[in-house]
Amino acid sequence: MTTTQKRIRVLHQQLYPESNSLNQIQHNQTLARMSNRKEAVRVVVTGAAGQISYSLLPLIANGAMFGPDQDVILHLLEVEFVLPALQGVVMELEDGSYPLLKDIVATSDANVAFKDADFAILVGAFPRKDGMERADLLSKNAGIFKVQGQALDKVAKKSVKVLVVGNPANTNCLLAQHFAPSIPKENFTALTRLDHNRAKGQVAKKLGVSVRDVHNVIIWGNHSSTQYPDTTVGHVVVNGEKKSIRDAVNDNKYLEGDFISTVQKRGAAIIAARKFSSAMSAANAIVDHIRDWVLGTPEGEYVSMAVPSDGSYDIPEGVIYSYPVTCKNGKYTIVQGLTVSEFSRGKMVATYEELADEKKAALEQLQ
Ligand SMILES: NC(=O)c1ccc[n+]([C@@H]2O[C@H](COP(=O)([O-])OP(=O)(O)OC[C@H]3O[C@@H](n4cnc5c(N)ncnc54)[C@H](O)[C@@H]3O)[C@@H](O)[C@H]2O)c1
Ligand SMILES: O=C(O)CC[C@H](O)C(=O)O
User: Fold this and answer.
1) What's the whole-model pTM score?
2) Fold for domain 193-365?
């Protein structure tokens, strides 16, 4: 510091003594925060140069997923020929000046990407384009999840939490789980939070209320057009008054008809309109899923997660099935004891049967 700078500093302190003490307080708080700071978590995102990731990565880097005190190290996996484009994404992350982003690993080698991973968000897969059937995806994408399951098994932390997004998400998740036998089965989940959020959105729109007033809708089963968006136990709170969704909407024909098919076909409607599959809303749902799994759900609030079936609600073990769950201390629990009507049972079984068929086709494919 030059003599002039020192004189200016002394003068400034004389003129504004309180600013000095304020600076000191802020400085001390920063030091305290830094000494309390949790160790950075390693978060793998596959398909990192794709369209979902382009919306997702800034949300992870800015703390929306793990909170404002959690540093992150991003491990970005892409296929080799997309690495030049991934470099552009890395440059943008560097230029984003994200205080929580500690480091970035960008690679096309799954064993490098999954090394010591705490979280693995498996987005990388081919999306359905207009005119393609979902069944086409199974044959295109199954191999990816075998290789990535094997890499997770070999090099990730045994506590890694996995979220599969790439379609068909539930069955790809089952494949990754199958090829990673050393990782607890319950650590494998698939994304149906987007469907859950879509269901809330439709109810809110119908009632002219905010989505924050809509609670405990449920998505059962597969992330596909057989999913069952269920409003039977959901409620709304408007002006402090709690009402069941059934009573508030007062139109069961809609709730058991157009509402269900709108949510089931929303992904297809977005592809038809955008010519690309949903990305911004998918990224937002990914953040919701991991954040709630790690940081917990508000008291009394159900969210939907596709998790290994365990016989709950008479859905046989062995598929990845979307259930209502609550989360606490980094664990999810399937909500038990809900009444299931005959109408609901039929829909829950139909979506299970689709999952059982997908599982058979996927395993045959990888023989
Ligand atoms: N579960 C859900 O709610 C949900 C919602 C929206 C989209 N999706 C699915 O997510 C997937 C990704 O969608 P997108 O729009 O980002 O697609 P995209 O084509 O824009 O991006 C996918 C990326 O994955 C990469 N990739 C392909 N194989 C890979 C591999 N083996 N390892 C690493 N990266 C690989 C591709 O190079 C590409 O950059 C699709 O399968 C889509 O159907 C799921
Ligand atoms: O391919 C689809 O039908 C849907 C794509 C995506 O999973 C979505 O739900 O938006």
Assistant:
1) 0.91
2) L-2-Hydroxyisocaproate Dehydrogenase; Chain A, domain 2 (3.90.110)
